[in-house]
Amino acid sequence: MPQATIRLTMAQALVKYLCSQFTEIDGKRVPLFAGVFGIFGHGNVTCLSEALEAVQDRLPTWRGQNEQSMTLAAIGFAKAKRRRQIMVATSSIGPGALNMVTAAGTAHANRLPVLILAGDTFANRVPDPVLQQVEHFGNPTTTVNDAFKAVSRYWDRITLPEQIISSLPQAVATMLDPADCGPAFIGLCQDTQEVAFDYPEAFFEPRVWTIARPRPDRQRVAQAVELLKSAKKPLIISGGGVRYSGAEETLAKFAVDRGIPIVETIAGKGSLTHYHPAHAGPIGIIGSTSANALAGDADIILAVGTRLQDFTTGSWTAFSPDAKFISINAARFDATKHLALSVVGDALETILEIDEALSDWKASPSRMEQAQSLFKEWNHLLDQHQLPTNAPVPTYAQVVSVVNKAAGENDNLIAAAGGIPGEVAKGWRVKSPNTFDLEFGFSCMGYEIAAGWGNAMANEGKSTPIVMLGDGTYMMMNSDIYSSVLTGKKMIVVVCDNGGFAVINRLQEFKGTPGFNNLLKDCRIEHRENPMHVDFAKHAEAMGAYGRHCESLADLESAMEWAKGNDKTTVLSIATDAFAWVPGDADWDVGVPEVSERETVRAARAHQQEIRGKQRVGV
C-alpha cells in the first residue's frame, strides 16, 4: 500500500509540524511550541507568514519591535517554563537575521531552548545577489546565517523541501536534551519555502515529547559516595541545572538530612528560599561573604548542575588548592571540568541515588552550624547596607531592598547586566523558589525588558515580572515596553539611573585607569559637567505604559504599591549612587596592562598577579 501523503509547501509543512508537537507540564498536555515571535520581511513574509496566519488560533504569532529583543523574550519565556516549553523566533534575511545572533549567544551560554527560523538567499541562486545578501567571493554558499553556527546547538539550512522531515525532529530533540540544550537554528531559503512536496502524513502525527532523565553510572556514584564520606567540611553548589531538573526540593532535603550547607550560583539562585535552613547565600564574585568563606575552607565540593563559570569560582581562586570536586551534570562537558569526579546524569536522579548509597552518613553538625552562623552575619551586613540613610542619592542596595519588600511572594525578579546583577544576587531575598531570573551567563544588556515580556507570557497573569536595570541598559533596548502594552502582558520596570555604565566604570578605576567613556560625565559630550537627563518615566508613557520618577526611597515604596495595582506595564525611575556597592570578597581575573606609565595601573597589575598565583589549575 502506498504511503499516505499530504501536499504542502515547505513553509506550510514546517508550521504544521510545529503545531503537532506537544509536551507535558504538571501532568497536562500542552503545545511544545507556545507561539512565535516574528518580524516579517521579504525573506519570510510571502511563504512562512502565509502558513502562520492560517494557524494563529493554535500557534499565535506575536510581533516584536526588534529581532534581538523578541528572541530574548523567547529565552525569558523558556527560562520561566524551566525548558519545558519553547517559543519560535523568525526574521527575514540579512540584518534581521543577524540581529538574532546576540540572542542566540545568550541562549547558548545559558543552555536555553529557542527555535530560530531565518529567511535565507535563493537555493537556485538565479536572482543573486538578492536584497540584503552579503556575498562571499570565494564561497557562494556562505550567507549571514552561517554566523549562527558559533552560537547554535543545532544548525541547518533547508535547500530542498523534504529536508525538514529529518531536520525538524533533530532540532526539537536537541532543544529538549538536558545535556545539549540550547538554540536550534534553521535557515529557510526563500525559493524553497514556496515549493510543494508530498509529505508523509505520519510526519504530522501528534507527538508528546518528554524530558529525558539520564541516570548516572553506578561506579561513578560509588566513587562520589566514598569521596563524600571522607569530607570534613563538605559544601554543595546548586546551579541552574537543579532548577531545570526540578530537583530543588530533593537537593534541599538531601542537604538538611546530610548536614551539608548549600550555596547558589547566579543561575541557581532561587532554587531555595532565602531563609531555608541549609541556604548559605550566593557564591562567587557577586556572592556573599558567607558562601565564599565556606568555599574557601571546603574540602569536598558537590557541584550540581553548574558549568562553574568564573563568577562562581572567583576565577578559580575561591577554593583551597586541595579541595576536591564532585560534579553532577547532565552534560559531560560541564561535569568533566577542573579535574572533578564527573558524575554524568540528571540532577534529581543522581542526588536520589547518592543519597540512598550514603546510608546513615552525615556531615559533622559543626559544618551546618558554621554555615548558619556565617549566613547570619551576612544578613546583618545586608541589613546595614540596605537601611535607608540621609544621603541625597540612594544606593542600589537600598533600592533593591524596597523593591524586594514590595514584591509579591510569586513575583519574578529579572535582571541581566551592569551594576544590578551584583546587587540583586547579593541583596534579593528570594521568597518562593524559581522566582529569580538573573541572566549572567552571557550578561546580555537588553535581556531584561524583553525577558520580562516573555516571562509575563509564561506566567499568564499568575505573577508579575519585576524588571530591574540601569539607565545604560534601558537606553540600549527598551522597545518591548511597547510590546508588553500592545499585548496586555504587564510587568513592572525599575530603572536605576546612575548616569551611565557605572559598574564597568568601577572596574576601570579599580584597575588603575581614570574614569573614561563610561559615566556620562566622563564621555566626549557637549556638557560634561551637566549631561542631558533622560526622563525615563515620560519615555515609557510615550510607549503607552504608566511611568513615574521617584525622588526618594519612600517615594519608590509608594510607587511600587501603585505599580502593583495598575492594569498595564509601569516604569519607575530613581536616581542611584554610581559609587556605592555591597561588598564582596571573591577575586576576578581580568587583563591588566603589563606595562604602563600610571602607578595606579602598575599597582593593579601587581595585585592581578597575586590573584593568578592563587588560581587552581584545571581543564
Written account of the structure:
By secondary structure, this protein is α/β, with parallel strands linked by helices. It folds into 3 domains: 5-209, Thiamin diphosphate (ThDP)-binding fold, Pyr/PP domains (Rossmann fold, 3-Layer(aba) Sandwich), CATH 3.40.50; 218-377, 3-Layer(aba) Sandwich (Rossmann fold); 387-575, Rossmann fold. Helix content is 37%, strand content 18%. The protein is built from 24 helices and 23 strands. The strands form 5 sheets. It has a 6-stranded parallel sheet, sandwiched between helices. Helix 3 (67-80) packs parallel to helix 5 (101-110). The longest helix is centred in the middle third of the chain and has 22 residues, at 365-386. InterPro entries: DHS-like_NAD/FAD-binding_dom (IPR029035), Myo_inos_IolD (IPR030817), THDP-binding (IPR029061), Thiamin_PyroP_enz_cen_dom (IPR012000), Thiamin_PyroP_enz_TPP-bd_dom (IPR012001), TPP_enz (IPR045229), TPP_enzyme_TPP-bd (IPR011766). Residues 418-573 form the Thiamine pyrophosphate enzyme TPP-binding domain. Keywords: Hydrolase, Thiamine pyrophosphate.
